[in-house]
């Protein structure tokens, strides 16, 4: 009987040990299952992140994904997913803003940073043939920076600059073409229209006419000539910056520019009309034009490379006029029956005007010749001038 008791006691201890082992194993299995589930979730999140990073996720309602400015540039996130969700979740009393914010897609936050390639540098150097009086700026300022960035595989990032020179010598036209050949997109803003900072960074929603500013509008909704979103290092220019508004009623425009020209503050740009979302503008390229910087504050001037652009010499002006005429004729080939010619005497007369006026005169003269079927253009509104030839000022 004693043996039976010992046997039962021993059996009970074995059962308890077995139960304890089972409990331990079950706990271990459950722990492993939890870890596995966690890892699976992490993998799923990582996979989703990779898909978003490379823009391979499908867009609802038939929208197609698009690369931004340059298909083989460096990836860049203009704004966060969290910021976009906050913006879309907010209740806005302005119907036009509700519709506008609804149009922003998650894929829009992914941009590229354009990295200069040899063809970009060649195209920029080619501009020196068209804009003769800009050759020093092109060859001594733009090209060296692009060349170094192409070697280091760095995004295009020109030092902040301001082109200073008399009106009509082609500053705005040059900057527009510079942006095009570098595939940077962006825009040129007329300083006359920027009379308060709200024009650039939006008007708060407490106003009935609230809307986003030019920077938010261009970077989020506008497209390049190729129909792509602007890259993260787009080129924005303000024409005749000395004419920007100086009122502080809705915020100083010049104080805003100081913030945009500094990387630390530019990467946290917030539009007053859409404060829920933060935009990273640290890679934006900034260029300005001015007839004179005397009215610009010293802090802003200190942040700009000031480049004097001379008026064309008589010889350069003649070459510019020839180039404008040839470009206009090229645009007409195959579209009109007769291409009008331009004699040298008229070309010399046109060359006495600024590049802006040259283009106006040539376009008008060609239009008149095509309209009448004339074989040669006849200058309209141009008078012989002996003292207007422009040299260095």
Give a written overview of the molecule.
By secondary structure, this protein is of the alpha/beta class. It folds into three domains: 1-53; 110-308, Rossmann fold (3-Layer(aba) Sandwich); 314-372. Helix content is 46%, strand content 8%. The protein has 14 helices and seven strands. The chain has helices at residues 2-53, 81-89, 95-102, 118-130, 135-152, 171-181, 198-201, 214-220, 253-260, 263-266, 298-301, 314-332, 344-350, 355-372; strands at residues 74-77, 110-113, 161-164, 186-190, 235-239, 285-290, 305-308. A five-stranded parallel beta sheet has the order 4-5-6-3-7, with helices on one face. The longest helix is centred in the first third of the chain and has 52 residues, at 2-53.
Q: In CATH, what is the homologous superfamily of the largest domain?
A: P-loop containing nucleotide triphosphate hydrolases
Percent of residues in helical segments? 40-55%
Number of domains: 3
CATH-defined topology of the largest domain: Rossmann fold
What's the short story on this structure?
This protein is α/β, with parallel strands linked by helices and 393 residues long.
Which helices and strands, and how do they pair?
Blueprint: H1 2-53, E1 74-77, H2 81-89, H3 95-102, E2 110-113, H4 118-130, H5 135-152, E3 161-164, H6 171-181, E4 186-190, H7 198-201, H8 214-220, E5 235-239, H9 253-260, H10 263-266, E6 285-290, H11 298-301, E7 305-308, H12 314-332, H13 344-350, H14 355-372
Parallel strand pairs: 3-6, 3-7, 4-5, 5-6
Antiparallel strand pairs: 1-2
Helix pairs in contact: 4-5, 4-6, 12-14
């Amino acid at each position: 009987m004693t043996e039976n008791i010992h046997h039962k006691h021993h059996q009970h201890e074995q059962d308890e040990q077995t139960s304890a082992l089972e409990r331990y194993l079950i706990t271990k299995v459950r722990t492993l299952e939890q870890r596995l589930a966690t890892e699976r979730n992490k993998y799923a999140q990582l996979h989703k992140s990779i898909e978003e990073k490379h823009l391979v996720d499908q867009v609802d309602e038939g929208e197609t994904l698009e690369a931004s400015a340059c298909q083989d540039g460096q990836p860049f996130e203009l704004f966060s997913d969290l910021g976009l969700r906050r913006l879309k979740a907010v209740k806005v009393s302005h119907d036009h803003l509700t519709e506008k914010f609804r149009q922003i897609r998650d894929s829009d936050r992914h941009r590229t940073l354009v990295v200069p390639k040899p063809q970009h540098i060649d195209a920029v150097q080619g501009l020196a043939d068209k804009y003769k009086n800009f050759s020093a700026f092109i060859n001594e300022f733009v090209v060296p920076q692009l060349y170094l960035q192409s070697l280091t595989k760095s995004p295009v990032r020109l030092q902040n600059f301001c082109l200073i020179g008399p009106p009509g010598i082609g500053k705005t036209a040059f900057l527009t073409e510079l942006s095009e050949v570098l595939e940077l997109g962006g825009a040129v803003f007329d300083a006359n229209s920027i009379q308060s900072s709200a024009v650039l960074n939006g008007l708060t929603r407490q106003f009935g006419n609230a809307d986003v500013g030019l920077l938010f509008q261009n970077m989020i909704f506008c497209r390049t000539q190729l129909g792509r979103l602007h890259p993260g290092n787009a080129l924005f220019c303000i024409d005749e910056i000395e004419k920007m508004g100086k009122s502080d009623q809705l915020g100083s425009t010049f104080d805003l520019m100081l913030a945009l020209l500094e990387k630390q503050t530019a990467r946290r740009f917030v539009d007053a009309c859409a404060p829920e979302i933060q935009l990273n503008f640290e890679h934006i390229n900034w260029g300005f034009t001015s007839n004179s910087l005397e009215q610009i504050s010293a802090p802003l001037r200190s942040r700009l490379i000031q480049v004097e652009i001379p008026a064309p010499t008589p010889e350069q002006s003649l070459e510019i006029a020839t180039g404008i005429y040839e470009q206009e004729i090229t645009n007409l080939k195959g579209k009109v029956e007769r291409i009008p010619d331009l004699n040298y005497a008229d070309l010399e007369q046109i060359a006495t005007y600024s590049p802006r006026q040259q283009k106006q005169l040539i376009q008008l003269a060609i239009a008149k010749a095509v309209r009448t079927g004339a074989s040669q253009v006849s200058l309209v509104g141009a008078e012989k001038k002996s003292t207007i030839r422009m040299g260095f000022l």
